[in-house]
Amino acid sequence: MECFDYIIVGAGSAGCVLANRLTADGRTKVLLLEAGPRDTDPWIHIPLGYGKLFKKPSVNWSYWSEPEPQLNGRRIFTPRGKVLGGSSSINGLIYTRGQPEDFDDWETPGWSFGELLPYFRKSEDQIGKGLGTDALHGCGGPLAVSDQSETHELCDAFIEAAVQAGHPRNPDFNGARQEGVGYSQLTARNGRRCSTATGFLKPVLHRANLRVVTDALVLKVLFEEKKVSGIEYERNGKALKAKAPQVILSAGAINTPQLLQLSGIGPAALLREHGIPVLLDQPNVGEHLQDHFQARIVLKCTKPVTVNDDMQSLWRMARMGLRYALQRKGPLAVSAGYAGGFWRTRPELKRPDVQTHFLTFSLDRMGEKLHPFSGFTASICQLQPSSRGSVHIRSADPRAAPAIRYNYLATEYDRRTMLDGMRLLRRILDQPAIKPYIAAEHMPGAKVQSDDEWLGYMRDTGSTIYHPTCTAKMGTGPDAVVDSKLRVNGLEGLRVVDASVMPAVVSGNTNAAVIAIAEKAADLIDSEARRGTA
User: Fold this and answer.
1) Any idea what the CATH number is for the domain that residue 265 is in?
2) Which of 12, 197, 212, 355 is the most exposed place for a label (fewest CB within 10 A)?
3) Which residues sit opposite 149 in a β-bridge?
4) Residue-range definition of the domain harbouring residue 342
5) Which long-range contacts (C-beta less than 8 Å, at least 24 apart) are formed by 448-451?
6) Which residue among 430, 461, 492 closes a domain?
7) Is residue 90 assigned to a domain?
């Protein structure tokens, strides 16, 4: 049984950052465990390849939620990365930090926006904006952050339509203000995805003090009384153990609470129900799940300028592949939200409460075939939802998927915000700049007008936008699972570093914030270790 200084469970958005930073001294011995394979699938490294990976079980946990009461009992498909880089290897590549108020409202010592900003900057290598040396952006970090490689006439029309509807242009959603409309930034360099595996892990794989083990399913964390002693994991059908005085869970907002519960840390009644000895009765493990709910408007296009059209023609597909191979441009180099915006649904609000992702393709449901007609999509997701759900084990078997309950649209506040957001989006799509491109509104269609009709449409078709968080939340109150240094309360040697620890979901795509959380956590851990040896 090998011994390490730290064992990191999960080589995803946070785990790869920690592995890089904690082994930088050349002495600290780290074991990094990943349940999935190495990131050799070629579609991982092509930005538009996320569509090919959306339901691919070799690199994706492919979870389903429990029936959602407010969505007519529908179960919601939940992709999560199971590969080096985790969800940063299969996501839509959009890089947005959120709003400063998000972090300030966490009200956790050390985690205000001003205190996290240096870690955003530390991780970034901003490409193409000339922003690398200003107060808000970083240059020279491991994570490539770039602009879209080229503009698109549909995106330009959408941006101009939003301006006509009274919204400001915004060339940088990570700049001085988030509100407005513009092109999204993405985690890519020269048309290739920059996951945390690419940016943080691969450059340091040669380090003698870092061991990376893939295809390793962690079964549980091991303890001596309430002090961590290591982990037990399975690889190639063998049960193995590794020892360490410090274990860091970076398995994500679904798998981290599952592993805590499997290890005897969670609601006592739930653990006993499944025959798991209770190490720590912590009723908040797996609670407070928060995610961004989205609903889409799909438009039929008057011109054959969409990805739908590219995929209907062998010639256009060949041209698309050739452009990418030679120039790293074209549809294959584009993120999931080519353009978009952040809006206030009511003028009296102090900050945006909804976000739009604008896509130059259309389909009935994400992960399915594109429509046979020219089509494009604009969506609304609520940025600060009040609904909360849960993640609970349904079995003592670590291979069994947990029960995920999002509880979308559970509050009147959330329903009202989504209604107002969809109407705001339709007003933008009714402006002169984009009207010439719209042959018809395919979904939901002009027949949907009243509150009840809009809510019915959202209940029938709305879904996740893939930002689960908050299931092992940090803080100083009685409902906190971890403290401000991300240590699990009531235990020694166990930390959580991933989206689980957010007290509330950030206002935007979550990957950037998770990476910054891991950067700060590495500093906290390193400082603690240095104090211990001083």
Assistant:
1) 3.50.50.60
2) 212
3) none
4) 149-183+293-382+409-461
5) 451/419
6) 461
7) no
H/E element holding 89?
A: none
Kindly name the residue from 152, 167, 292, 467 that is annotated as catalytic: 467
Active site residue 467: yes
203 and 275, same domain (yes or no)? yes
Here the CATH number for the domain that contains residue 450 is 3.30.410.40
CA 102 – CA 104 distance, rounded (Å): 6
- pTM of model > 0.90: yes
One pLDDT digit (tens) per residue for the chain, 534 residues: 789 999 999 999 999 999 999 999 999 999 999 999 999 999 999 999 999 999 999 999 999 999 999 999 999 999 999 999 999 999 999 999 999 999 999 999 999 999 999 999 999 999 875 555 689 999 999 999 999 999 999 999 999 999 999 999 999 999 999 999 999 999 999 999 999 999 999 999 999 999 999 999 999 999 999 999 999 999 999 999 999 999 999 999 999 999 999 999 999 999 999 999 999 999 999 999 999 999 999 999 999 999 999 999 999 999 999 999 999 999 999 999 999 999 999 999 999 999 999 999 999 988 889 999 999 999 999 999 999 999 999 999 999 999 999 999 999 999 999 999 999 999 999 999 999 999 999 999 999 999 999 999 999 999 999 999 999 999 999 999 999 999 999 999 999 999 999 999 999 999 999 999 999 999 999 999 888 753
Residues 212 and 272 grouped into a single domain: yes
Residue 487 lies in a domain: yes
Tokens of 407: 């509880």
Q: How far is CA 274 from the centre of its chain?
A: 30
Same domain, 340 and 219: no
